[in-house]
Amino acid sequence: MSFSSFSLHANLLKAISNMGFEHPTPIQRLAIAPLLEGRDVMASAVTGSGKTAAFLLPVLHRLIEKPRGTTRALILAPTRELAAQITEHLHDLAAHTPLKGAAVYGGVSMAPQESAFRKGVDVLIATPGRLLDHLQYPYARLGGIEHLILDEADRMLDMGFLPDIRRILQRVPKQRQTLLFSATLPAPIVELAGEMLQNPVSLNVERKAAPATGITHVAYPVPHELKSTLFLELVRTSASKHVLAFTRTKHRADRLAGFLEKHGVTCTRIHGNRSQAQRTEALASFKRGRCRVLVATDIAARGIDVEALGLVVNFDVPPLPEDYIHRVGRTGRKQATGDAYTLVSPHEEDSLRAIERGIGARLPRQKVQGFNYATAPTERFEVPIAERITAIRARKAEERVRAKANAARRATQGITAGPAGNGTAGQRTRSYRPAGPSRWAGKPVTGQSFRRPVAARSNGKSV
Ligand code: AMP
């Protein structure tokens, strides 16, 4: 089967061919035709299956002949990285059409996003939290939406976005085409689909959640404290140009990155404590080959799409089978091959067995030849949280003493202190003043404060 068997616009077929897509993937084969007919679709498709083009192509086809200037398609994604990834994919697929897409996510300025709303960019790709931030202002209108797509819906629910999704649904027309893509279809997703979709076509490309084919999976049992040295050994002996490593926490990601750098391995990291600019830069330098290893935590790593990613390492065993599938789905893409290694300490064996049950396969256990499993670690990898808190408190106490001494010195020298700087006292507030008529400039239309508390936007998970 070829793409030309769908009645897709010639300019989309041209882009598909330029991108080197020869045949539709299974999800594309199943989803494109009903989507072109305007049907609602609920699809279970894992990352790496070609799901993004499966929903973008029919939507772009249906928008091509429409007049410009109205946002007609809204794609909701759980993370900034995924939203950026979809936007990039859209840009490539729409290269020979006048259609434009814009990403709307947090951590970057709201002004260009406001401008995209005002221009009525054809497709908006948004994370729920930042979209709701915009929806407080009159320029953010979703009344023209004809296509609503929820991508990685299971992850959005895991991240506590369900209330946000419900609020967004109230702002889009009821008469629309709705698509729900999810790696897994647990009960809450099916329930949400029941509320959102009208007479949907259900597509289960992979009935049992399973990692993409073409990946060689290996588990390396290792004492917890030797993980970093074993990892270094695996990186040194791997032929893969790009290595993506996942850690359980932000602290462990920082520690692993520091350890690798100390041992001469070029490395960068992305996680929830890093600014959007830092994350974008990290991903760009990894993609350009300036760093061999990218260390990431789960949520931040969604949407990482790097050509020829030969090796993914679970430095820590992921908590759920779905996370395992998503992590290792970063290699072996486009029917290519890749390796997925999982370092397993004795207390992680149970989690690994749960993953094996989830994916319906046992991972072969292997030992690295020549690696000394009996050696004592030369340094401590992880600093326990209590110790880190004590160190932070000590540093802050020291800063306070120093500030007091400075203030006393300035007082004796007759220097008056200036106004307190940003965030030195009280709560720091961020405000956004949208462009446009002063009638409402800067005032959220709902009258509520501009920034909703983080807890209201997610379940507080920060990785
Ligand atoms: P996705 O599952 O949408 O994240 O896509 C995974 C990767 O597969 C992306 O790098 C796409 O560019 C690529 N891809 C999507 N469709 C095809 C296709 N029909 N043939 C080859 N590669 C594809």
From TrEMBL:
GO terms for molecular function: ATP binding; hydrolase activity; nucleic acid binding; RNA helicase activity. Residues 1-29 form the DEAD-box RNA helicase Q domain. It comes from the Bacteria. GO terms for cellular component: cytosol. A motif (Q motif) lies at residues 1-29. Residues 407-463 are annotated as: Disordered. Keywords: ATP-binding, Helicase, Hydrolase, Nucleotide-binding. Residues 227-379 form the Helicase C-terminal domain. SMART domains: DEXDc (SM00487), HELICc (SM00490). InterPro entries: DEAD/DEAH_box_helicase_dom, DEAD/DEAH_RhlB, DEAD_box_RNA_helicase, Helicase_ATP-bd, Helicase_C-like, P-loop_NTPase, RNA-helicase_DEAD-box_CS, RNA_helicase_DEAD_Q_motif. Residues 32-203 form the Helicase ATP-binding domain. The keyword Hydrolase applies. The keyword Hydrolase applies. Belongs to the DEAD box helicase family. This is RNA helicase. It comes from Candidatus Methylomirabilis lanthanidiphila.
